[in-house]
């Protein structure tokens, strides 16, 4: 899905309390204990890339809440969001909750802090088959603020949009939703010129020995295994999000 670069900013107070700083120091210490944490922020790794072009350099540890633009979006898309939200909550350590709330913030404005508004719209980019993420960022600390996800309804109104195979079609629908959520959480497309022909092509993304490409691969990663559909990869996307969380603390202490 195309990478939007909307000129959207959100300004917030960034004053930290002593308790915040203590919590940050403790989390940083535990991260150092359990994995090879970096000592300076990192914005790119194998199969992942920070969305620095949209002003996002880190993932805030504070909870994010997924809400819906209307009841149709809620009915159609809730089930697609629960698995990736649970992954970010459990494997990254940033709570992401799928609520039943409705939020009528227009797509031209950033929603309240840490709200992710999900829309179900016919051709939101006026192009067949294109969905869109509109990520907002905290201008104070460069963390992911939340934003809007605009899913193209054609994926659902056409039962064979991605594939005539029902299982494959559904796995790709799941991939599409999680891909856009990844953008809101600060991940960019990790495509790279692997074959060194001077062009970064569609789908040109690293692939693991397990056969998985990052779910942020643009415009998509092709056909995932059915069980991988809609899941951030453990090889690329989740380590990227964990580094983005680490960046949040590293950017405060550097
Ligand atoms: Ca190439
Ligand atoms: Zn994309």
UniProtKB/TrEMBL annotation:
Keyword set, alphabetical order: Plasmid, Signal
Signal peptide: 1-36
UniProt KW Signal keyword: yes
Keyword Signal annotated: yes
Superkingdom, natural source: Bacteria
InterPro entries membership: MetalloPept_cat_dom_sf (IPR024079)
GO terms, molecular function: metallopeptidase activity
Protein name as catalogued: Matrixin family metalloprotease
Organism: Streptomyces seoulensis
């Amino acid at each position: 899905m195309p990478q939007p670069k909307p000129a959207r900013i959100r300004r917030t107070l960034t004053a930290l309390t002593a308790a915040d700083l203590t919590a940050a120091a403790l989390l940083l210490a535990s991260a150092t204990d359990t994995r090879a944490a970096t000592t300076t922020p990192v914005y790119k790794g194998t199969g992942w890339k920070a969305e620095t072009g949209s002003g996002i350099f880190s993932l805030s540890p504070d909870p994010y809440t997924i809400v819906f633009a209307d009841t149709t979006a809620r009915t159609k898309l809730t089930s697609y969001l629960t698995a990736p939200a649970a992954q970010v909550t459990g494997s990254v350590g940033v709570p992401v909750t799928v609520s039943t709330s409705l939020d009528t913030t227009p797509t031209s404005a950033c929603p309240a802090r840490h709200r992710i508004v999900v829309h179900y719209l016919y051709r939101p980019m006026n192009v067949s088959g294109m969905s869109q993420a509109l990520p907002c960022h905290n201008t104070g600390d460069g963390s992911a603020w939340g934003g809007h996800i605009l899913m193209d309804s054609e994926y659902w109104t056409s039962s064979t949009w991605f594939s005539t195979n029902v299982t494959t079609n559904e796995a790709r629908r799941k991939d599409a939703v999680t891909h856009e959520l990844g953008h809101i959480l600060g991940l960019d497309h990790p495509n790279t010129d692997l074959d060194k022909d001077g062009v970064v092509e569609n789908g040109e993304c690293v692939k693991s020995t397990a056969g998985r490409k990052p779910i942020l691969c643009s415009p998509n990663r092709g056909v995932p295994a059915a069980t991988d559909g809609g899941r951030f990869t453990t090889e690329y996307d989740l380590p990227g999000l964990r580094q983005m969380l680490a960046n949040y603390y590293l950017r405060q202490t550097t």
